[in-house]
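Continuing from the previous page of notes. For each protein in this section, the sequence appears first, followed by its structure tokens. Read the first protein now.
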Amino acid sequence: MAKCCVWLKIIVLALCCGLNITLFILSYGISYQHLLTEQHIQFREVMPTMDEWINSPYGKLKSYLFNVTNSEEFLSGLDDKVKLEEVGPITYKMLGFNDIQHRNESSVTYQKHRYRHVEFWPEESVSPDILNKTIIQFNTVLIGAAATLAPSLATVPFSHIAFNSLTLSEPLFVPGSVYYFLWEFTRPTLQFLSKITSLSTNCGTLHNALMEKQEIYTVNIGPKHGVENFFRLQSFNNEQLIKERRELGSSDYDPSCPINVTGTLDNSLYPPYLQKETPLSIVATESCRVLPLHYQHEQQHEGFANYRYTLLRANQTPPSCMSKTYGVPLPPGMFDVSKCIVNDAPSAFSMPHFYGSGYNWSEHFEGLTPNVDDHEPYILLEPITGIPTQERYRFQTNTPLPDLSNFNRLGRLSHMILPGFWYEYETGSLSDMVLFLMHIQVDVVPVLQPILMTVQLLLAAWSLLSLIRICSNSESYGELYQKTCCRTTVLLEITFNQKRTYDPNTRVK
């Protein structure tokens, strides 16, 4: 029966040779890495990245307040500058949720709930009882109201007198707990005004910053739009332009104003195969604008060579549509966000501690320490997969002030830019499964493909040589056939004849 395996060997070797030649030819014309990318951009629910994306954003939010340490000295005129002391971090755990509303082969529509779960994180804060710490801050309700009304009151005689009388009980500096300023900041004057206007009475910074907003995105998925357009936006809240900026009063859209979301990203996923010159912009809902990302350099993180992008550049000129807030010109490194905050008050974003700003803050303040390591916002992207490996958003809210010389107690603040608070949002680490799959696609597959192709070629050659050797050892196909299990066994019977048929004495002539 062992001889019956010859035909089986021939069949197996022939199949092995044909299969490996076919695989080698197919592998020569395709990229295994690209095949994995095609699966990724189809955004199927079975992919491990889907579950992580649904439960995002996730990470921690660090808040920092500024405590005024010389309020009495400044009010009395002994000090010309306001001395500030940074208080923080005050850290919160955060977990969001992406609710898919509709999907097809080329697009997906979902609503983002950024702050589904927010929890104070005492271990990551400057102290476990930091929320109870008493600090002193500017009365931003009083100052913001004066800055808002200043342009209109300037044309109304004696209107400043009415404002000063109404706010007589409001101090310039307000003491309170950290929790009060973050979550429950309100003033008697504001409560009174809210009864006759639509003003919100709670000006707590985190109370308003973490308030639920409508965020409905429609983005590209699948091969129809091309790999380079994966997860780029088609619309935001069913519009191409950010609504808050369109409501500024102008009926004509200025193309230079960064509010067109078409082709931008939501900052959760990016197109694969990024190049350093690939244009990338994100929708920054906190500032009601589109923020372009600026490539800086490569940076190692999580074992990958990432591209590092910054969200703001030092001394970056603000777009013309965001270069003023309530008539106050903004220096480089700032842009208007008044339409994105509570009560539509004068406000501008900058990097923390006025880093990268053209504002000469040292003329008015002491205690700030702007530096790139602590205050520059950036994103690290793995360029092959387009997956962010680290994100740190760092922005500071500021109140730019006009001439306030007609307002009691506020004249010394004229033309100052008051820092409010600043925050750093840091995304959590990617799961081990996602990191493993990223390493497979980025590091293993590019090396594995040529190895597999070499093995395929060697197996094909070995199979072919083995077939030739089997055939060459047989003189004819008939002999080869006789060596197989189909050959019959022949029994020979030998008969001995006892009669002598040859006489040795006989001579042959």
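Done with the first. The second protein uses the same format. Note its length before scrolling.
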Amino acid sequence: MTEQHEDETADFKVIEARNFSSSRLDELRNYSFWRIWSEDVDELIMMEDRIITKGPKAEWITEGILDVLPVSEPRPQQIACASDSNFQSDSLTVRIQKNSVLSSNNSDVNPDVPVLNESPDTVPVAKPISYASSVSTLSDKEQFPSFLRTVPSDEFQSFTIAHIVSWFGWTWVGILTENNEYGQQGSHLLRNELSKLGTCIAFNEIIPTVYSKGTIQKLVKIIEMSSATVIIAFSSSINLYPILEDVALNNITGRVWMASDGWSLSPWFSVPMFLRTLQGTLGVTARSITMLSFQNFLQTLDLSKYKEDHLIKIFWEQAFSCKWPDSVFETISNQPRSLLKICTGKENLKELNIPFLSVSDVRYAYNVYNAIYSIANALHNMHACIQGEGPFRNGSCADIQKFAYWQIPRSICSETCRPGFRKSLQKGQPICCFQCILCSIGEIANRSDSSDCTKCPDDKWPNDKQDRCFPKSLEFLSYEDTLGSVLAAMCILCALFPFVTFIIFVKFRRTPLVKANNREISYLVLAALVLCFLCSLMFIGHPATSTCLLRQALFGLIFTLCVSCVLAKTIMVVLAFNATKPNNHLKKWFSPKVSYAIIIMTTAVQFIICLCWLTASPPFPENTVIPRLEKIIVHCNEGTSIAFWCMLAYLSLLAGISFLVAFHSRKLPDSFNEAKFISFSMIVFLSVWLSFVPAYLSTMGKYTVAVEIFAILSSSVGLFGCIFVPKLYIIVLKPEWNTKKYLMGKESNDNKDK
């Protein structure tokens, strides 16, 4: 860039920014660019440099008439800017230079920045550039085609605040909005962004720009009564101050305030009154960086070059407590002019120790540096502390294991739904207000705040917390199961009774009682009963192909053999008594061969049924998965239920025939008539198996197997108890009754005659 320095004072004019009018705008068209001076010039240069180097924000300075230098080489002639309506003071002096020409050929000009290359004969258009106006509407080039700025739009500020809220997990916040474009547009953008992130608004209230005590009290009451513990204030400090003052006076604490750039750095709130109220406040503002060489420029400022600069003169007077000889800006009341210190312009700025001359970045970076090193040093001291030499009572040391972080407050409408629960929205309430409903049976939710529950696969089942699916357990009647072990013990114990009875019958095989009751068939019945009890063990344990194939067939054949023997015994009793009658042709049927024939024929029918069953549709092991059941049922599929029920039906038919024959012979003239006991045994047998049918059909899994085992044990015990227990009583306890006379009834008659 080339500039004319021969007569700088002639080429500049000073204009107050707030005094611009339409007539002044015509005058501006004769000048190529503006220069600004203010105490925020370091911020201005920093922001300009950041925008240029960042790239995406470069559209903010398109078609600008700028002379931008690297931050490391600041000069007084380096940027143009307009005043900002968001700041309380608009006293910005605009220095205008006539007929300056900007050239993009100069290496000092950033090539990424569009510049206006005009000849002295053309009329360039000067565009205002703001360093603090952040209202998002100003980005609309149709409404404000000539407006440029070096500060981010409120769109980015709203985006930042919304994502901070989301990062902390706050889903229930309140918003206070200043009643102007800055507040309204900023909060509108904020609400939209919060909505995208799933955060709900507890309240959105307007901060009046004209003080109203009633309105302030109403707002404070809303803040106090709301369940939201995070409040975002999009406002300037002057309008927010009355509200925070009332909040502090009412001792409303426990809230986290989030500050927009309009009040985040305001010194008004850095007083003891607000310490409790604003504790933990989070704020956003434009960043600041260190400007190398700029402090030296300020300290070596040459006033001879800026004799007409109104702001510099005011600054000089206030900094050195002096007055210019021809000053017309202000006077000191009741003080003679002769006592005033006269400004000479030779005063040394390096001798001043004022914040204005400190341009190093200590606002954020240095504070963070100190905070990190404070914590690091504290932790180191805690770790290295020696008991007895510590800083606390009696020289004690702090426990580094109990070091606590800052507790982030929670601001939510509804508690988070734990895994295993799903969210159920409440009618008429925002989406952040919901109920947590436990997932249905067979469903899980493996993350917090799930909207829906997921059904587990058929072979899996939720855990107790319903947040994970696990493989279903296998259910079958096992020996490790209490029910299985008890039934197995009962089977073995019950089998001992007919086995011991068999031994007793063999020992007393020559006694009249054993001989009179068809000794060989009795042996066969006792052996069949032992097998009946033991065959129940095949129903216990993990179903296998072999056990599934044989268990029902063996049960049916063994029980058929047992009932067939009882039927043969009953028929032989009837034949024995009827064969003694004169001229009775039944005597030729009274033979052991008839008994064996009956047993073989009746058992053969059951054998054929079972053989057809096993051949046509044999049973096999199967895993049954029921979606709403937490276990997989391992059982034997009977192949065809028709064959199973045919087997039971035939067995019941034999028992029914035995009962009818025994009941018909109950009045035969024998003091020990076995037909009576056979009748009772068949009644028990039929009752058990008739009860078995509904119980078998109404149970599932291992309990179905347990029902069948119980039916086998019960019917077997009924047969044994009714037929053999009375005989054991006589053989073991009443041996004197075990005589032929007693059995024929003669001994009892002789006792009556005496």
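What the second structure shows: Confidence is low (pLDDT under 50) at residues 1-127, 362-368, 746-754. The two ends are 158 Å apart (CA to CA). We return to this in next week's lecture.
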